[in-house]
Amino acid sequence: MKYIEKLRNSGLRPTKQRLQICEVLFDTESTFHFTINQLEQRIKSKIDNKISLATIYNTVHAFEKKGYLKQIPINSNQTYFDTNVTDHHHFYDLKNEKLIDLENSDVGPINIKRKINGKKIKSIEVLVKLED
Amino acid sequence: MKYIEKLRNSGLRPTKQRLQICEVLFDTESTFHFTINQLEQRIKSKIDNKISLATIYNTVHAFEKKGYLKQIPINSNQTYFDTNVTDHHHFYDLKNEKLIDLENSDVGPINIKRKINGKKIKSIEVLVKLED
DNA sequence: TTGCTAGTTTATAATGGTTCTAAATAAGTG
DNA sequence: CACTTATTTAGAACCATTATAAACTAGCAA
């Protein structure tokens, strides 16, 4: 299994559940956005055994902390995650509530001119809201 | 009262509660960011009578819809609002969970090169996360 | 293999922000 | 004043997320 090493290297035990969640998240043709609920459905349809909701939350948070997932800052009652952890941005279609990746090259360089004393920039995220 | 006209013009009846909330939100030296909970506290300390939490929610949403308030896209368990409705962006200090305004001139022009068929851009919001 | 230890999973309860409900109240209008 | 419609309100309901604590499992050393 290709994810065993990856997990072990980041200090996470490669449990059956985590490996199965890895498959659902990362054995895909393209990256995707999801809420915990959507991920739960996806897991249900691809995996025979049950994985508890608590484990899904735990795993997603563990993966996010390790940098395998990114949270997308957006105002919604549910939290959105992205399996695309490269530096990029998002369109958010307000009508369909759908996220669309915006490559860095589609946005151009963002140069933050202001500095805050004693703080450094961890990330810069652009959200472009779309309407009809 | 200077807010009576403003409310009436946008189709909102100028009730006592709404006028009081206007004072708390807009009779300030500078704009500010708030959660509903913080606003509730601020109201409690500035107003003699009680305004129910449901009314605060109703009013904030009504004001947002009319463009008197902006929601700030950020991943938090609570929704953040901004009384600064001009086109601008935010720093978010992860340690203190504090928002800081970032003027448009501090970010520079953002030119979204990609177009989505049949959609137009409603807003562009930049969130710059800060760490120590 | 066998224990041991720390990490993980799990069902379920608890939490907490937000929305809903339905009755009381207040504003606008003729 | 009478009537209609909007608004306020307390409290219940909702629902995503987190906490709990017991059962289980991986890793490791003897």
Report on the architecture of this protein.
Two copies of one chain form a homodimer. Chain A has 132 residues and is α+β, with helices and mostly antiparallel strands. Chain A folds into two domains: 2-81, Arc Repressor Mutant, subunit A (Orthogonal Bundle), CATH 1.10.10; 86-130, no CATH class. Helices cover 36% and strands 23% of the residues of chain A. In chain A, a hairpin with a 4-residue loop joins strand 4 and strand 5. In chain A, helix 2 (16-26) crosses helix 3. The first copy, chain A, starts with a helix and ends with a strand. Strand 6 (120-131) of chain A pairs antiparallel with strand 6 of chain B. The structure holds a DNA duplex (30 and 30 nucleotides).
Give the SSE layout.
Two copies of one chain form a homodimer.
Chain A: H1 2-9, H2 16-26, E1 33-35, H3 36-46, H4 53-66, E2 70-72, E3 80-82, E4 89-93, E5 98-102, H5 104-107, E6 120-131
Parallel strand pairs in A: 4-6
Antiparallel strand pairs in A: 1-3, 2-3, 4-5
Helix pairs in contact in A: 2-3
The structure holds a DNA duplex (30 and 30 nucleotides).
